[in-house]
Amino acid sequence: MVTLAQVARHAGVSPSTVSYVISGKRSISQETRLRVERSIAELGYHPHAGARALASNRSNVIALMIPLRTDMFVPVMMEIAIAITTTARRYGHDVLLLTSEEGPSAVKRIAASGLADAVILMDVELEDERIPLLRQTGAAAALIGLPADPSGLTCVDLDFEATGALAADHLADLGHREVALIGAAESVYRRHTGFAERTLAGFRQQAAARGLSHLHRPCGAGHEAASGTISRILQERPHTTGFVVQNEAALPHLLGQLRQSGRAVPEDVSVVAICPDEVALHSAPQLTSVSIPAQEMGRRAVELLMAQAGGEDTSGLTLLRPTLTMRESSGPAAAAP
Amino acid sequence: MVTLAQVARHAGVSPSTVSYVISGKRSISQETRLRVERSIAELGYHPHAGARALASNRSNVIALMIPLRTDMFVPVMMEIAIAITTTARRYGHDVLLLTSEEGPSAVKRIAASGLADAVILMDVELEDERIPLLRQTGAAAALIGLPADPSGLTCVDLDFEATGALAADHLADLGHREVALIGAAESVYRRHTGFAERTLAGFRQQAAARGLSHLHRPCGAGHEAASGTISRILQERPHTTGFVVQNEAALPHLLGQLRQSGRAVPEDVSVVAICPDEVALHSAPQLTSVSIPAQEMGRRAVELLMAQAGGEDTSGLTLLRPTLTMRESSGPAAAAP
DNA sequence: AGACATTGTCGAAGCGCTTCACCAGGGGCG
DNA sequence: CGCCCCTGGTGAAGCGCTTCGACAATGTCT
Prior knowledge:
2 copies of one chain form a homodimer. By secondary structure, chain A is α/β, with parallel strands linked by helices. In chain A, 46% of the residues lie in helices and 16% in strands. Chain A has 14 helices and 12 strands. Chain A has a 6-stranded parallel sheet with strand order 2-1-3-4-5-11, sandwiched between helices. In chain A, strands 7-6-8-9-10-12 form a 6-stranded mixed sheet, covered by helices on one side. In chain A, helix 13 (277-282) links the parallel strand 9 (270-274) and strand 10 (288-290). In chain A, helix 1 (4-11) crosses helix 2 (15-23). The longest helix of chain A is centred in the N-terminal third of the chain and has 17 residues, at 74-90. Chain A starts with a helix and ends in a 12-residue tail after the last strand. Chains A and B meet through helix 4, strand 1, helix 5, strand 2 and helix 6 of A and helix 4, strand 1, helix 5, strand 2 and helix 6 of B. Chain A binds a DNA duplex through residues 1, 3-5, 13-17, 19-20, 23, 25-29, 32, 47-48, 50-57, 114.
């Protein structure tokens, strides 16, 4: 293993000089810097992470807590995780993966052991158990999602209220009068995950404002759940012509079921999905959708953490503006028969 | 921050004693052990990870390299990643997430910096760039997937040859004579990812052995690709009655397309999927499938790494036996008209 | 009873790095 | 000209832990 001392000897300088070349915390003459950098490259030196963490009291690691749940859309989680990792690398940080299996105490362990110097929480619930611990340990943190009381916390999320409203507006603009929101699994609502409730709130409010008669139904994953939900809605409100779907796992089944019930998309009914663009593009017909900016959410979370490390106060909400892309699944409401 | 020295003072022993209590590397009297353990709990002590890594030259971290690609089935990756993380925790280890964006040199960086003391590689290609580096640095490693030359490496994977054969056998047993394998995206084959080619080989060989006329087509994600693939197969070989599908992303679209072409499942055609049980159960009809034991793959990889750390030679292939579960999507071949 | 293991504890060295305090050598300034 | 203040470099302390060797205090065997 190559150490800093060896690099120093090789370059004919003192260890501290090498350290300062690497960290850039002191001005170094052009000449010595180059000499040192050449030695580093030549010897293939990489600083020892542990030693660095010990001496500097910072580990350059971000801990990422992901949920174990399966009722969330996994690819979105993954996309966020990957965006976090690549952004972190850009700042010279690595990412430690924590699952919620270990329980909320993982927060304490990580903070106390100095394994990471910041935490990103995904899939935040309204009353999340981890948040009191976070406040107590005073660890640097960013949340993806909104808890009930976000005061003093750094939060990043899509503006789901605006998302629900945007979808309702789109359908209203197209002349639809009866609309339905097909949401996430019931367990998600029971858990009081913020995004689902916020979407619903935004949707309801805007639908009411636009004079739409509206309906909301949760929907589990899988064919059974999806077709059951659709047929119950159609039975209850046969004149529903606008659907907003916030449930990627059920999407193909919902479309299939609509087709089977004799409704053509978009001629008879319109569908607006809340999903990643990729999913919208891979459906048939391609879906009008409000996209979930997974990459940006991950990137922003890391950037906020880095600003926080630099002493900035980053607390507050960063709500990303939703954008709706019209594709083939929505169109003017059919004239009443 | 609580240090080991503080614990020692609190318990009235020397720091080394506390260390030995924690590591268990020396015998300690019942009495002192209890006293120390109480102090640890009382003070809420957690060893500093960096200091520990520096002194012991082991970080208790496993690096997990996951691919950035989107043509693999993401939920399976995630399931493996989660299984790895929870198993690692059981051994007192944490998991560092690396994406392939950083390139193969990430392997070198991690090994040299002592950030992790073992690496798990996912999505291994037949001629993987990371493998030479792995051999060169001599880092402890486990691969999920098989490279072309696995000699000296510790590999874990589903036995995909047996998987292909098993699916062919199942269809043959049911009396089907013309079968087709609908595989992963073409890019996966072009990249020479082992699992796709091995499934194909096993399928071909067993189909030939059982006297089946067989066909293979890659298939991209999304509706377009799926329905195109199906209709081309049906056009080319209209009497195909058995389908093996190794492409989760295309699965719902394929089923839809079959229905649309007037083929009932399982009355007219049988479908065997190679996918996680969850996907098979959420389809309609529920799919006969060979499951992908994602959890076990992750678990085994970690266990092998731990054995390796204990000095065992774990090199060689660990191929998990595939199991086929018959559900609603396969049945006896229809008698020829 | 003496020699010899065994057991439980301690002290100190040192892992590789950062960072503080210090110093030498030039300017620029009044 | 003397002063101070930059700039670029060094030395050494110390971060919190592991681990080796030393050493009492026991027990065990002839």
